[in-house]
């Protein structure tokens, strides 16, 4: 069932009740060992149908935030909800199922299985869940412009095409949310633009929700909002970010991070 877009309080398509936001973090923090706080308490709501870019200098907590939000790591404190389901309430098998069925992942390296065909790669999340693809993999491939390449092996495709397959695989289960970790990090700028346009289209036409970690201001400019982390805290949020202002912000944060590191004796 395709649900209506919108934040908390929106009724679902059947009018049965409020539709939960795609992602909610309440007071989510992560301390790796005593004193090393990778993430200070973060509150964040991502409504359905939104494209959010997460930015910040290296070591600012982007991966930690993504891993906690996607149920790949357990926060030290706070609650994470995916489509209204609180992750802490789930045992490991239920969490694994939720990750497979209700979260899509796109990584910098596309992580396709080379021995499977392109169509089989896209169908994999369904097959692992014991479901028949029922044409869903074919439709997902067509939606990323690769409807004719289902029988090929991933090695027969270009880097950009492989990333399109990874996006089709991430969307095939109609997940509550897609997490993309530097999805264009290994692509040339022109190919990257195509992949970003596809993510934008998944949000605008498909009603999907995307949270993308990136260090590239040009990539962030495709998002509805850019959220900036520094030293494990959310320090700024920009609606409809432009590449220039994102670049400026990243320069400032990089400078601050460098000064902080030097102050604390980590720098040169
Ligand atoms: P980013 O993704 O922005 O580069 P990370 O989330 O990877 O930042 O890291 C945030 C902070 O947490 C850094 O100081 C990093 O060294 C630390 N950190 C990350 N993972 C671990 C870990 N497994 N054990 C200890 N410290 C970690």
From TrEMBL:
Keywords: ATP-binding, Nucleotide-binding, Transport
Domain ABC transporter: 23-256
InterPro entries, per the entry: AAA+_ATPase, ABC_transporter-like_ATP-bd, ABC_transporter-like_CS, ABC_transpr_LolD-like, MacB-like_ATP-bd, P-loop_NTPase
One term of GO molecular function: ATP binding
Pfam family, one: ABC_tran
Signal peptide: none
Ranges annotated as spanning the membrane: none
PANTHER family, A to Z: ABC TRANSPORTER RELATED, IMPORT ATP-BINDING PROTEIN
Name used for this protein in its record: ABC transporter ATP-binding protein
UniProt lineage: Bacteria, Bacillati, Actinomycetota, Actinomycetes, Kitasatosporales
């Amino acid at each position: 069932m395709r649900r209506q877009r919108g934040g908390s309080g929106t009724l679902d398509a059947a009018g049965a009740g409020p539709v939960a936001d795609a992602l909610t973090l309440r007071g989510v923090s992560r301390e790796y060992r005593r004193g090393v706080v990778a993430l200070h308490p973060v509150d964040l709501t991502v409504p359905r149908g939104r494209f959010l870019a997460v930015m910040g200098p290296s070591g600012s907590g982007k991966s930690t935030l993504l891993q906690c939000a996607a149920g790949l790591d357990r926060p030290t404190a706070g609650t994470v909800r995916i489509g209204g389901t609180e992750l802490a309430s789930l045992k490991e098998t239920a969490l694994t199922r939720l990750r497979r069925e209700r979260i899509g992942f796109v990584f910098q390296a596309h992580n396709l299985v080379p021995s499977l065909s392109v169509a089989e790669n896209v169908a994999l999340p369904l097959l692992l869940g014991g479901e028949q693809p029922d044409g869903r993999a074919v439709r997902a491939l067509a939606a990323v412009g690769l409807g004719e390449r289902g029988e090929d092996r991933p090695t027969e495709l270009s880097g950009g095409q492989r990333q399109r397959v990874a996006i089709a695989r991430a969307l095939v289960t109609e997940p509550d949310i897609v997490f993309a970790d530097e999805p264009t990090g290994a692509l040339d700028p022109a190919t990257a633009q195509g992949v970003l346009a596809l993510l934008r289209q998944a949000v605008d036409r498909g009603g999907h929700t995307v949270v993308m970690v990136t260090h590239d201001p040009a990539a962030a400019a495709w998002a509805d909002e850019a959220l900036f982390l520094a030293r494990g805290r959310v320090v700024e949020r920009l609606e409809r970010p432009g590449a220039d202002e994102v670049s400026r912000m990243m320069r400032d944060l990089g400078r601050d991070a460098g000064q902080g590191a030097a102050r604390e004796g980590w720098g040169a």
